[in-house]
């Protein structure tokens, strides 16, 4: 059977009010393919019947340029490209009659429709049955399992007005829940996320959050948390992405890794320690060892802040090999500083130095001296950008 493809050259109508509708087949008995308005150029549309129907409706106000489109005819021998769902993935590329493809949603999204669709041929017409599914961020739900994502309804689109969404999170008995905020933006003072320390809204309120300040991580005192999202009748925002993980009772939260460093210690229970080490060329600032102790709020917490690995401004270097980094590396160095690095090796060795990566502004200079102080002979004076000198 012959089928039709539409390709848009121009599209510009008044958003919502002046609408172009496209049916695959006749208006009665066909399939509504698109409802288009606004100024975004629509992607190509393909029929599965040998006719396409277009209806353009305009209101009494505001006229724009309208549309220009080309149509072309081809012979159907397989199904159309079923596309990739927003917030999901598809496995399978075959499009012959009898073939199927399978859809899966990204974490936090639920699938609307059926995850497996089949290419079907009836009287020379090729189409997917049923229609491809969509992936949406749901309004509330019961969540179980050791970890997961909670998204505001319709995320990453702005959340809808006038919604009441309730989530109940339940993890393994004798575990507690750690809730961290990856993204947070609600209309200040009118849209809220209330979080309760227990199975429902009668449990103690841990906090009511709104605005764009990302809240600190939250820990439950039992294995359930209840979350209530409320939006009012106007003004929306991008919403939130929360991650929950279960954690053994009487344990500190996962302290994470260190930029330019490594960690020793994986047991996070009360009384245990983790110790950080910096990579070559970096100096550890702070205390390398953290101990999990009982905090003043009756919850376990680390006794010290996490240290940092920084590239120092100058210093004494010795040993048979090592790395010297500009201050703040890999970030930019700060202005108006002089950093003196002294590199000494055992007698009977000479120092061989090689720059792996080198970049300064034209007025910033690295001078290399042959000897213990800056009064020794200058070996080289470098600025600009170089590699492997
Ligand atoms: Ca609102």
From TrEMBL:
InterPro entries: CUB_dom (IPR000859), SEZ6_CSMD_C4BPB_Regulators (IPR051277), Sperma_CUB_dom_sf (IPR035914), Sushi/SCR/CCP_sf (IPR035976), Sushi_SCR_CCP_dom (IPR000436). SMART domains: CCP (SM00032), CUB (SM00042). Residues 139-247, 313-389 form the CUB domain. This is CUB and sushi domain-containing protein 2. Residues 1-18 form the signal peptide. It comes from the Eukaryota. Keywords: Disulfide bond, Repeat, Signal, Sushi. The keyword Chloroplast does not apply. It holds the Pfam family CUB. It comes from Ilyodon furcidens (goldbreast splitfin). Residues 77-137, 250-311 form the Sushi domain.
